[in-house]
Amino acid sequence: MANMNLYSRGDRMFVWLNMFLIGVFALSTLYPFIYIAAISLSTGFEARAGNVVLTPVELTFAAYKYILVEPAFWRSYLNTFIYTIGGTLMSLAFIIPGAYALSRPQLYGRRFWNLMVAFTMWFNAGLIPFFLNFRDLGLLDSYFGIIIGFAVNGFNVILMRNFFEGIPQSFEEAARMDGANDFQVLWKVYVPLAKPAIATVALFCIVSRWNGFFWAMVLLQDQDKVPLQVFLRHTIAKLSDDQEFSDTLFTQAYSAETVTAAIIVCSIIPVLLVYPFLQKYFNKGILLGGVKE
Amino acid sequence: MTVENVDKPVETSSFAQPTRVQRIVDHLKREWQIYAMLIPLVIWLLLFLYKPMYGLQIAFKDYSIFRGITASPWIGFEHFHTLFGSEQFVRALRNTFIISFYTLVFGFPMPILLALMFNEVLNQWFRKSTQTIVYLPHFISSVIIAGIVITAFSPSAGIVNTVLGWFGADPIYFLTKPEWFRPIFIGTGIWQEAGFQSIVYLAAIAGVSPTLYESAVVDGASRWQMMWKITIPSILPTILIMLIIRIGNLLEVSFEMIILLYQPATYETADVVNTFIYRQGLQSGQYDFAAAAGLFNAVIAFILVMGANSISKRYSRTSLW
């Protein structure tokens, strides 16, 4: 951009007003998180009384102590890692080779196979048939079911396929000369070149796995297998109408509100830790999704 | 469909014209690896997405778990008659359209506005840090967002009622009031997604040729004028495409969030088709009836998406897929 001094006074006013409004929006995005963190560190009594606004009132770690000794909390945390890592690897294992095949001009019936993928983006059978199918396959209440059942997403396949199609044929010629087969060409030529696309798809998978809650809630009855989000949901629901908790207000330093807030903080922390690393992909990778058939 | 491997000599070249079967066999011999890579994907799609489509027939059947999908007796359109006679379903359908419509009206302009505003920020540090902040809620799960909303709007502890209290107002039980459900739900959605959605428009703005701005500066244009005369017209195609996509997905209300926020007291304004299906089917076990509601939903959604795609093809010559 050109030098600031070139701009008139009206322009400078405009620039400052704009910055102010953006600042307000950013703060309003940030505030709820600060508020929740403050509640989690306040006493239950003060939180219940609505005295927490920005900073902890009567700083205490009681809510964290309450939640961190809960084995079900750690169990669900571990489960979330299993689903996120296992699910993302499973997705890539289906999507990368599949998308490579779909990108090959010599694939017989290529239009048909591509349409088969695209159609799933336009029409899906809905919640009930999906659930009944899952049950008929015997995948209810299983780690494997959750990991494989959500592995493929048409959008991700097409995104990956488009990237492969954009890689010039000349890149693979040298490998072909050396007698490489398709598996070797994919692994040694295409996968390294497609790193941004793979990172994007992996990011989509990780985010949806980490945050996924609805199907985990529906498909898993065994509480030892539920991910963090379902545990969180159960706990929030339990706390909000649990008699035991309203009685603790005067005897304990925590309350339903502070415990809920503490769980929320605990489950956001990993996201915040990886967030700076994700950041650099937003502007490049994520926009590969200009999906075309 | 042609097989484009004419340059490679076919092994059976002693025959002047290999038969069709022979050509396919040769093709598979040579290219079996790409089919080996394709097959797992195809099997997955058949097993997890196409097989449920076969299961959709229970919408026209009296489904019983013991008989299974195929053996349950056909009953024609009975479930659909019940569906449209059901006040709850009609209400859910109405709520779906109302919530979608308001989400579109209030939620659609926000990311565009944000992108235009980010574009006017000259201080790169300020721009980067505010962008990082407003993208964040997109990566937070709906359970957590709902937890924050429930806490913030709680009648006793919540910050919203605390602030209202400063002005002498009585606490409002927001989440039990039907009239408050939609503003809270739609506002939460905008708060969570507007920042992240602005990325698309920022990319479009980044693609505008800098020479346009340079010549405008020479002509003495103000930043305000440049925004209206250069930036907005340049990103108009992107805006239109996003609008068409959005209309194509009009029925896609984020029902996960609704399940987390609604309660019987607010069903009146909050219950949408997918939450209705969830309760009738997955919670009450009326699978066939709920599948009928789902089929209706899916058909309407399909028509909308197809319509959106053909409109987009006609006007922008770029298909969405």
Topology readout:
The complex is a heterodimer of chains A (293) and B (321).
Chain A: H1 9-40, H2 44-48, H3 62-68, H4 71-103, H5 110-122, H6 127-136, H7 143-149, H8 154-166, H9 170-177, H10 182-193, H11 195-211, H12 214-219, H13 228-240, H14 243-248, H15 256-282
Helix pairs in contact in A: 1-15, 3-15, 4-7, 4-8, 4-11, 4-13, 5-8, 8-11, 9-10, 13-15
Chain B: H1 20-55, H2 68-71, H3 78-85, H4 87-107, H5 109-119, H6 124-135, H7 142-152, H8 159-166, H9 178-206, H10 210-218, H11 223-248, H12 255-261, H13 267-270, H14 273-283, H15 287-316
Helix pairs in contact in B: 3-15, 4-9, 4-14, 5-9, 6-9, 7-12, 9-11, 11-15, 14-15
Please provide a written account of the structure.
The complex is a heterodimer of chains A (about 290) and B (about 325). With about 290 residues, chain A is mainly alpha-helical. Chain A has 2 domains: about 5-70 and about 230-275, MetI-like (MetI-like fold), CATH 1.10.3720; about 70-225, Orthogonal Bundle (MetI-like fold), CATH 1.10.3720. In chain A, about 70% of the residues lie in helices and about 0% in strands. In chain A, α5 packs across α8 (about 155-165). The longest helix of chain A is centred in the N-terminal third of the chain and has 33 residues, at about 70-105. The two termini of chain A are about 35 Å apart. The relative contact order of chain A is 0.14. Residues about 1-5 and about 285-293 of chain A have low confidence and may be disordered. Chain B has about 325 residues and is mainly α. Chain B has 2 domains: about 1-75, no CATH class; about 80-315, Orthogonal Bundle (MetI-like fold), CATH 1.10.3720. In chain B, about 70% of the residues lie in helices and about 0% in strands. Chain B is built from 15 helices and no strands. In chain B, α4 crosses α14 (about 275-285), α9 (about 180-205) packs across α11 and α14 (about 275-285) packs antiparallel against α15. Chain B is flat and about 70 Å long.
